[in-house]
UniProtKB/TrEMBL annotation:
This is UDP-3-O-acylglucosamine N-acyltransferase. Pathway: Bacterial outer membrane biogenesis; LPS lipid A biosynthesis. It comes from Parashewanella curva. Homotrimer. Residues 22-89 form the UDP-3-O-[3-hydroxymyristoyl] glucosamine N-acyltransferase non-repeat region domain. InterPro entries: Hexapep (IPR001451), LpxD (IPR007691), Trimer_LpxA-like_sf (IPR011004), UDP_GlcNAc_AcTrfase_non-rep (IPR020573). It is an enzyme of class 2 (transferase). One of its GO terms (molecular function) is UDP-3-O-[(3R)-3-hydroxyacyl]-glucosamine N-acyltransferase activity. Catalyzes the N-acylation of UDP-3-O-acylglucosamine using 3-hydroxyacyl-ACP as the acyl donor. Is involved in the biosynthesis of lipid A, a phosphorylated glycolipid that anchors the lipopolysaccharide to the outer membrane of the cell. Belongs to the transferase hexapeptide repeat family. LpxD subfamily. One of its GO terms (biological process) is lipid A biosynthetic process. It catalyses: a UDP-3-O-[(3R)-3-hydroxyacyl]-alpha-D-glucosamine + a (3R)-hydroxyacyl-[ACP] = a UDP-2-N,3-O-bis[(3R)-3-hydroxyacyl]-alpha-D-glucosamine + holo-[ACP] + H(+). It comes from the Bacteria.
């Protein structure tokens, strides 16, 4: 188990210790669950009452609270970001693979950097290039000519098709498929003619992709995911989509073909973006929203209705279907009123 003193943590976090700086921390926990040896944090004011009862060894608090709390603490600019940093330093998650397993199938033409590990029954195909310290989990397949950058971790049972490029320091979770064919067909008198998907997928550095997410390869050009993007579980990214740097997308969202998502966007769960549209940098899209037109300026976009009792929902649905009729009646009444005024 790793451990670190409060004094060292404060130095790394550019914070200030209150209490014994030699106190040792070995893990992190919530205020409610924390025990001796654990560090907790307060980022949401609604949990402030738990400060009195927590058993945490120390707490990460905002510098603004320095005059309000007398217990052992580290005061920092942003407690939640500080917590994330400490959690990384004390992380005990095992490697995706500890060595090159005897059952792994590695083609003679593949190039493996220093410190590469490959799990049981994984397949590394011809002309693959793996950078230093890449981890390939059990059962994962890396297709011909694909390139994976240094320190990237691929968990078990990931499928990476041919000629895919993945950057450094990425994390790809189990069940994800990268580089499968996009949904490209031409219609010939009612019969579908498949269009070979000859583009690729290019993923930047420091990208994290959740479990069971699918990223299609481009039809001609590449599907692109830029640096620092985070994708949740079960997301569909269609062919030739582009996701700008440091954008975050929550689970069950679907991006249709050739859409372009700007940088630093946040897209909630269960959203859909129609094909060939663009979304401006910094846009927030709330959950269950359907984007069907271009978003040209940074904004907050919403479209889903909120949950309500079924009886009320049924009434509102009927009224919604009557909107056009009501609109026409209002127009008629307005015209009649105008004629009387004249």
């Amino acid at each position: 188990m790793q451990s670190i003193s409060l004094k060292e943590l404060a130095t790394r976090l550019d914070g200030e210790v209150q209490g014994n700086g030699d106190t040792v921390i070995n893990s992190v926990a919530t205020l409610e669950a924390a025990q001796a040896g654990q560090l907790s944090f307060l980022a949401n004011p609604k949990y402030r009452s738990q400060l009195e009862s927590t058993q945490a060894e120390a707490i990460l608090l905002s510098s603004k609270m320095q005059s309000e709390y007398s217990g052992t603490a580290i005061f920092v600019k942003d407690p939640y970001v500080a917590f994330a940093r400490v959690a990384q330093w004390l992380d005990t998650t095992p490697k995706a693979a500890d060595s090159i397993h005897p059952s792994a199938q590695i083609h003679a033409s593949a190039q493996l950097g220093e410190g590469v590990t490959v799990g049981a029954n994984a397949v590394i195909d011809a002309n693959v290039i793996l950078g230093d310290n890449v981890e390939i989990g059990a059962g994962t397949v890396v297709g011909q000519g694909s390139i994976i950058g240094s320190n990237t971790r691929i968990w078990a049972n990931v499928t990476i098709y041919h000629r895919i490029t993945i950057g450094q320091q990425c994390i790809i979770h189990s069940g994800t498929i990268i580089g499968s064919d996009g949904f490209g067909y031409a219609n010939d008198a009612g019969k579908w003619v498949k269009i070979p998907q000859t583009g690729s997928v290019r993923i930047g550095d420091n990208v994290e992709i959740g479990a069971s997410t699918t990223i299609d390869r481009g039809a001609l050009d590449d599907t692109i995911i830029e640096d620092g993007v985070i994708l949740d579980n079960q997301i569909q990214v269609a062919h030739n989509a582009v996701i700008g740097a440091h954008t975050a997308i929550a689970g069950n969202t679907t991006l249709a073909g050739s859409c372009t998502i700007g940088k630093h966007c946040i897209i909630g769960g269960n959203c859909a973006v129609a094909g060939h549209l663009s979304i401006a940098d910094g846009t927030h899209v709330t959950g269950s929203t359907n984007i069907t037109s271009v978003v040209r300026e940074r904004s907050i976009m919403s479209s889903a209705t909120i949950a309500m009792p079924n009886k009320q929902w049924r009434k509102n649905t009927v009224r919604f279907r009557q909107l056009d009729e009501l609109f026409q009646r209002v127009k008629t009444l307005e015209k009649a009123a105008e004629s009387k005024e004249i």
